[in-house]
């Protein structure tokens, strides 16, 4: 995956950077970056405009999410990780599953720890919503900005931690 271009936009949790390949497909999203608004060079054909990305990001956090406004590449360097990311992408908005349940739905019921590793390495945390995956005993971790960002994303989707 060679990154050819990036855009950085403000978001609920700080700044979010979107990385695109030379064909315009999104390949990585970094949440809670310290950088301010920026982009790198000239956008390849197919990269959504800053306005379209901003509208999508606002819609993602609202009650009426939209499809991503451009092409994106499903991550997964191995068959297992691709199955995990595909199962994660299928988790409905506002719902959560455990690492163990996700392992089962990906066809490897004893691989909860390996699922956790996939979640920690997820390059597309908004399109492959790893914030919807919880530990059996609580929230678990979130490499996309830490637990505060995970909670912000879950709350934006209407999910509340039950006491």
* Relative helix content: 25-40%
How much β-strand is present in the residues?
15-25%
Number of strands: 6
The main sheet comes to: 4 strands, antiparallel
Strand order in the largest sheet = 3-2-1-4
> What's the SSE pattern?
EEEEHHEHHEH
- Envelope shape: globular
Question: Which spans of ≥5 residues are poorly predicted at pLDDT below 50?
Answer: none
**Helical segment count:** 5
Describe the structure.
By secondary structure, this protein is an alpha+beta fold. 29% of the residues lie in helices and 17% in strands. The strands form 2 sheets. The chain has a 4-stranded antiparallel β-sheet, covered by helices on one side. Strand 2 and strand 3 form a beta hairpin. The model has no long low-confidence stretch (mean pLDDT 90).
Concise overview:
29% of the residues lie in helices and 17% in strands. The protein is α+β, with helices and mostly antiparallel strands and 163 residues long.
Q: Could you give the topology of this structure?
A:
Layout: E1 5-11, E2 14-20, E3 26-33, E4 38-39, H1 50-60, H2 79-89, E5 97-98, H3 99-105, H4 112-120, E6 133-134, H5 147-156
Parallel strand pairs: 5-6
Antiparallel strand pairs: 1-2, 1-4, 2-3
Which features characterize this protein?
163 residues, globular, alpha+beta, 6 strands
